[in-house]
Design goal:
By secondary structure, the chain is mainly α. It has a single domain, classed as MFS general substrate transporter like domains (Growth Hormone, Chain: A), CATH 1.20.1250. It is about 80% helix and about 0% strand. It has 16 helices and no strands. α2 runs antiparallel to α13 and α3 runs antiparallel to α5. The radius of gyration is 21 Å and the shape is globular. It is found in: Cell membrane. This is MFS transporter. It comes from Flavivirga aquimarina. Keywords: Cell membrane, Membrane, Transmembrane, Transmembrane helix, Transport. It is a multi-pass membrane protein.
Length: about 425
């Protein structure tokens, strides 16, 4: 049976092409993000500037999320993703030009900084479309009975790119500098666009084409709030990511606390993704759908503990291990959450549900970066990270106590129902 085959989704040709597109795209995106972080902190030496990067991305990503979900449910997914990638290439090109000494010679630091923030803002606008489009497209490529397996490999690919992108980005800063690192990123974005065209256009499964925006958004939000499993997973992960945003402060730890330079920064930045990737490979062989609620609570509790250890550490290898194990626990959380979303979301509402998810979880990464920048500025870097980890622990304990139905969440029957349906 398909559920016993850890490679079920990988036997579908278009899914493999999709994974390659996502790998190249996320590799470039994650590499670009840490190159920008490094450049901005090098220009300002102000932790608040790192938080502003997150704020500039979250404002458009959050405010446009629901409308983007509506558009995704109304449009053909392959071409919409191609359009998003083409627009993203303009951002990469702009950042490349902004770090070209011949062009910006004589520019004030503030002008360069604001220009970077402006491109990040545009990236946040695109991000509101990326998540729902990718989430909807993968559901049109694989059959429902292997959604959990596809979610595992999809998340694993995302994490693998998250491992290699930041690591290569940190190393490339030292090897070839910020400017040429951004040139590589521009090339990767163009490559992802070319690969995507190998996937055929997909049917639009929404029977309500032309529905008013207001009615469409109302239905999407109501569905999420009525589906307790989806709402609980989104809320729990949102708070954990919001207060556990130590990653945004890594340039400070790398430069000022651990003193490991750009190479060490790249390794630290990659450590959580390495841990998450290993976890996701394991879940391809050992499904975690049974007792999913308790496993999700335990994973996020472990994540909070790891963040506290990282914040208190001044030893490089201890910090590295703390980030590694934070990634392992986060990997469990990601697989469970993606499985819940894929299984419990109807085909005609995937764009809108994914958009709500991006508002809860995706945008909280950037809001968490802003929160970390603010708390680091006024509480100190170490205190800010410990505070975030502590808030994560409090959130998990509170959720477990007030929501017994979430503790009992089990996805086994849902998966079996999809197998019978197919």
């Amino acid at each position: 049976m398909a559920k016993k085959d850890p490679y079920a989704a990988l036997r579908i040709k278009e899914f493999n092409i999709f994974l390659l597109v996502r790998f190249v795209l996320v590799f470039g995106w994650s590499m670009q993000f840490i190159v920008i972080e490094w450049q901005v902190y090098s220009l300002t030496k102000d932790p608040l500037s790192l938080g502003i990067i997150g704020l500039m991305e979250i404002i458009p990503a959050f405010t446009m999320a629901l409308f983007a979900g509506h558009i995704v449910d109304q449009k053909e997914k392959r071409n919409l993703l191609a359009l998003c990638i083409a627009a993203f290439s303009l951002i990469s090109l702009g950042l490349f030009l902004l770090t070209w000494d011949t062009i910006v010679e004589g520019w004030a630091t503030r002008t360069i900084l604001y220009s970077i923030y402006g491109l990040v803002f545009f990236g946040g606008f695109l991000r509101s479309f990326f998540g729902p489009t990718i989430f909807s497209l993968v559901a049109l490529i694989v059959p429902k009975k292997i959604y959990p397996n596809a979610a595992t490999w999809n998340s694993s690919t995302w994490q693998m790119a998250g491992v290699l992108g930041p690591a290569f980005g940190g190393l490339s800063i030292g090897w070839i500098g910020v400017h040429w690192s951004l040139c590589i990123i521009f090339g990767l974005v163009l490559l992802s666009f070319i690969i995507l065209l190998q996937i055929k256009r997909k049917p639009i499964l929404n029977p309500k084409i032309g529905e008013s925006v207001a009615q469409s958004l109302k239905e999407g939000v109501e569905f999420v709030f009525k589906t307790k499993a989806i709402l609980g997973a989104m809320t729990l992960d949102m708070v954990a990511v919001l207060f556990g945003g130590a990653i945004a402060l890594l340039p400070i730890f790398a430069q000022d606390i651990l003193e490991v330079g750009s190479e060490g920064f790249g390794v630290l930045r990659a450590a959580p993704a390495v841990g998450a990737f290993i976890t996701m490979l394991v879940t391809a062989y050992i499904p975690i759908s049974k007792n999913a609620g308790m496993k999700l609570l335990a994973a996020i509790f472990g994540f909070g503990v790891c963040i506290i250890v990282f914040g208190l550490s001044s030893i490089f290898w201890v910090s590295l291990l703390a980030l590694f194990f934070s990634g392992m626990t986060d990997g469990v959380s990601m697989v469970i959450r993606q499985t819940i979303l894929q299984i419990k979301t109807p085909d005609n509402m995937r764009g809108r549900v994914s958009s709500v998810n991006s508002m809860f979880v995706g945008s909280s990464n950037e809001l968490g970066a802003f929160e970390s920048g603010i708390t680091a500025k006024y509480m100190g870097t170490v205190a800010a990270v410990v505070f975030g980890g502590t808030m994560t622990l409090i959130t998990v304990v509170t959720t477990g106590l007030v929501s017994p139905s979430f503790r009992r969440l089990d996805l086994t029957k849902d998966i079996e129902a999809h197998e019978k349906e197919d």
